Amino acid sequence: MVDLQTAMAAAAADRQKRLDKTASERKKRRSGADLGIERFDPVKHVAKEKAETASMWLVLAYALIVALLNRHMLMGWVGPGDGFLLWFLPISMLIFLPRIHRTVMPAAFIEAYTSGTWVKAGFLHTFTFLAISFLLVNPPFGDVTAASLDGDWEVAVITEDGELVLASASGDVLDMDGEGFAWTTDDGVLHGTAWVLFTLSDNHEVSENDVEIRLSSNAGSDLIEAATVPDALLNLSRADADHRWFAMPLGSDLAEGRWTITVDIEEQGSPWVNTREYSWYLDIIEERD
Fold first, then answer.
1. Does 276 lie in the same domain as 159?
2. Distances (CA, A) of 251 to 10, 77, 198, 276
3. Which domain CATH number covers 177?
4. What residues make up the domain containing 251?
5. Contacts of 120 (CB under 8 A, 6+ apart)
6. What angle do CA 168, 246, 213 make, to 5 degrees?
7. In a domain, 143, yes or no
8. pLDDT value at position 151?
9. Position 8 in a domain
């Protein structure tokens, strides 16, 4: 048998265990120091915010300097041929951010910086550099691309009767996905005077682009000279302040074969000379049964 004193002691011990368990669960649900959370210190918080703000302005200034050096020194040195260096070298400059912070910032600020600070500084430097560089290579600060084709190019033929035939609208012509036209004729000769038509546009002054057009075949290559544009073609003009329209004669009664039209565009941009080239084809094919 269990005497009364032993039973009471066992009941008290069981009750104490339940109280300890309840207190432990209540402690887990509490916030604050019981959970390891530091008490909010307004003075320390303000000091950290000042340090983070100073870091932000330092990184912005650093990214601006890197972008200016890239635009006015590195781009002129490297040239347009190696685009990899023009973005890799400036962005890789973020590795110097921790050392610059430790050199420039006061000791009180440096104590507030952690590894997270360097991660945020790296992202801020990268995107700030890209944004500033985009502004510096476009007008009015720079120009790194030559004029480009605006819309589709076209071949037009004016027959001896004065009829205007456009390659894109003729049932005898096959469009080769914008790279050229295959024109089928009865006798292998494209009767009439053929013209190439196209329009250029630029993000700066399209008139400052030097354009040279050549026509080549198995017989050789010839520079196409400007000629008086017939009234039938003037109605197709798209020339205005932002567009430069070209109508250049390819010749009369072109013979069977492949004719290659090469358009070379050159412009004195900033910081380098901008170039672009287009090559189009006109295949004249004799229809055979």
1. yes
2. 116, 43, 17, 25
3. 2.60.40
4. 148-286
5. none
6. 95
7. no
8. 94
9. yes
Chain segment 126-179, per-residue pLDDT in tens: 999 999 999 999 999 999 999 999 999 999 999 999 999 999 999 999 999 889
Helices 83-92, 115-136: crossing angle, 10 deg rounding: 140
Instruction: Region of 288 please: left (phi>0), alpha (psi -120 to 50) or beta.
Output: beta
To 10 degrees, what angle do helices 42-69 and 83-92 make? 150
Q: What are phi and psi of 66, to 5 degrees?
A: -65, -40
Helices 42-69 & 115-136 angle (0-180, nearest 10): 40
8, two tokens = 């009471």
Q: Which residues contact 224 (CB under 8 A, 6 or more apart)?
A: 196, 213, 214, 215, 248, 249, 250
Both tokens assigned to 72: 């006015």
Per-residue HEC secondary structure of 82-114 comes to CHHHHHHHHHHHHHHHHHHHHHHCCHHHHCCCC
Q: Cis link prior to 80 (omega < 30° from 0)?
A: no
Taking only the tens place, the pLDDT of each residue in 183-214 is 999 999 999 999 999 999 999 899 999 999 99
Q: Is the pLDDT of residue 35 over 80?
A: no
Q: Do 240 and 163 reside in the same domain of the chain?
A: yes
Cα gap 200→105, rounded to integer Å:
52
Question: Is there a domain that residue 103 lies in?
Answer: yes
